[in-house]
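Narrative of accomplishments. A recurring question from our advisory board has been how the design workflow behaves on a single, concrete structure rather than in aggregate. To address it, we present the structure tokens for one chain from the evaluation set, followed by the sequence designed for it. No filtering or post-editing was applied between the two.
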């Protein structure tokens, strides 16, 4: 462990020597002693899986010095905000957290403030926005070219906005160029998700008028027009995810395949059903295989969903083929923490957390195999609001900034708060640390895989996504299967009160 920590320290020292700092400052009213996590790039590759402590909000102020050697998308998270910053060496960015019409908003100033503000506060790049646009076109058009035009239209709108900002000197040309790459990557990601979902034979809500062949035609057009294999996308959000999708489609024969390049230690023969997507990694450019294997291994480490052999295979692959990779120190640290002194659990864990505690308390093992059973056993005669979430889910964590208002509302109406995580049992330590850092008041439940599987039956869905919010009445009956998010404020509160009326 000492050797690993020393290696990480050397990496950070080297990074600091060759990189200038970007300075990020913030004013967050009424906040004190709140940790801020950061997702810094691994070399040139964008990072969405591995966070590290970047600093703390102290007496309403935040000051961060972030090493930046090239244009970098850096994500910052705390209980009170989440943001993504496109930073250049020497940048200085300031933000303030304000409440406007019951919602929290981040206001930016400093380097490229107009572009950063647009990226964080617009809805054009959000998954639901892209999904709704494409779903609308799919529902009314049977010609692939019209769907392609809709996707291109989303990207062209973003390009036009960036051009306008450059003309007004709101952002630099370099900022606009890199942001356009991000717009293309994000739109490709959400568009591919929707198109592949429409192709799925098990998807019960298909609305497309396109045949499967025409859907394949649109998919091929997207991947050719905004080619994820192009190295220019390496540093932008979700680039590696798009590469993985394209490589997987090549492996399945949906699109024409490039030459397969199998690097040493790429043990495809011994991969199990859960790792089937990795069998297509060899179709990706060698430069991207570093990120594909590293990200997949990081995800396995943080989610705790796969065994030690698969994780070891991933780490060995990266160390053999990319010995200077910036991923290696972090992979080794996470591996050591995961498999040193780990404990196997035979049941589910229920824990409580109070605002004045410094750690979780009242741990107990339970044998509930379903959420309704848990509610009836542990919360008999009580109303319960349930938050389905995970430590690795950015949208889930973004909603926690509204936890104080939600907590006050639930307390006033005598409703218990239950957080059910989708983290694995192997991730218990990280889960408990997260609860304390985010000061999430209420009951917390760390379930088994069987419990999570049963949720799909309870909610009558084959594809359960998070965050999701549920409400049980005082008889243990599920009366709300998909409540509005806490960020909607009065919309959520009104829905809850409406559901409680018959029993009041």
């Amino acid at each position: 462990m000492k050797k690993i920590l020393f290696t990480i320290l050397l990496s950070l020292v080297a990074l600091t020597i060759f990189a200038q700092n970007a300075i990020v400052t913030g004013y967050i009213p009424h906040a004190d002693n709140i940790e801020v996590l950061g997702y810094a790039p691994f070399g040139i590759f964008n990072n969405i899986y591995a966070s590290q402590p970047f600093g703390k909000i102290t007496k309403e102020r935040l000051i961060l010095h972030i090493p930046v050697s090239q244009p970098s998308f850096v994500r910052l998270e705390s209980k009170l905000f989440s943001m993504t910053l496109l930073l250049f060496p020497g940048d200085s960015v300031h933000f303030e957290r304000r409440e406007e019409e019951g919602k929290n908003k981040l206001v930016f100033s400093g380097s490229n403030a107009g572009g950063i503000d647009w990226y964080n506060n617009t809805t054009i790049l959000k998954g639901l926005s892209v999904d709704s646009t494409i779903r609308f076109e799919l529902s009314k058009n049977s010609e692939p070219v019209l769907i392609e035009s809709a996707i291109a239209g989303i990207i062209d709108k973003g390009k036009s906005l960036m051009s306008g900002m450059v003309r007004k000197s709101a952002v630099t040309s370099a900022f606009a160029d890199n942001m356009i790459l991000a717009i293309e990557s994000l739109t490709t990601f959400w568009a591919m998700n929707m198109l592949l979902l429409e192709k799925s034979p098990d998807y019960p809500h298909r609305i497309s008028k396109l045949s499967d062949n025409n859907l394949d035609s649109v998919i091929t057009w997207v991947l050719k027009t905004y080619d994820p294999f192009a190295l220019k996308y390496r540093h932008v959000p979700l680039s590696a995810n798009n590469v993985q999708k394209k490589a997987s489609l090549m492996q399945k024969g949906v699109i024409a395949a490039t030459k397969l390049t199998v690097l040493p230690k790429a043990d495809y023969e011994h991969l199990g059903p859960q790792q089937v997507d990795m069998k297509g990694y060899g179709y990706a450019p060698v430069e991207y295989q570093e990120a594909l294997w590293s990200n997949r291994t990081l995800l396995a480490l943080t989610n705790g969903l796969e065994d030690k052999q698969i994780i070891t295979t991933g780490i060995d692959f990266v160390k053999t083929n990319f010995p200077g990779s910036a991923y290696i120190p972090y992979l080794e640290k996470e591996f050591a923490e995961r498999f040193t002194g780990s404990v196997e659990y035979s049941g589910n864990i229920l824990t409580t957390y109070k605002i004045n505690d410094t750690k979780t308390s009242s741990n107990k093992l339970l044998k509930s195999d379903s959420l309704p059973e848990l509610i009836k056993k542990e919360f008999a005669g009580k109303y319960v609001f349930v938050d389905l979430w995970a430590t690795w889910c950015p949208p889930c964590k973004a909603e926690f900034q509204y936890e104080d208002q939600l907590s006050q509302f639930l307390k006033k109406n005598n409703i218990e708060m239950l957080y059910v995580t989708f983290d694995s049992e192997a991730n218990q330590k990280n889960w408990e640390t997260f609860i304390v850092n985010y000061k999430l008041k209420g009951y917390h439940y760390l379930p088994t895989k069987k419990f999570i599987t049963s949720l799909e039956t309870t909610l009558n869905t084959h594809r359960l996504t998070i965050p999701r919010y549920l409400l049980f009445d005082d008889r243990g009956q599920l009366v709300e299967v998909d409540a509005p998010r806490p960020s909607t404020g009065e919309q959520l509160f009104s829905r809850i009160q409406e559901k409680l009326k018959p029993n009041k």
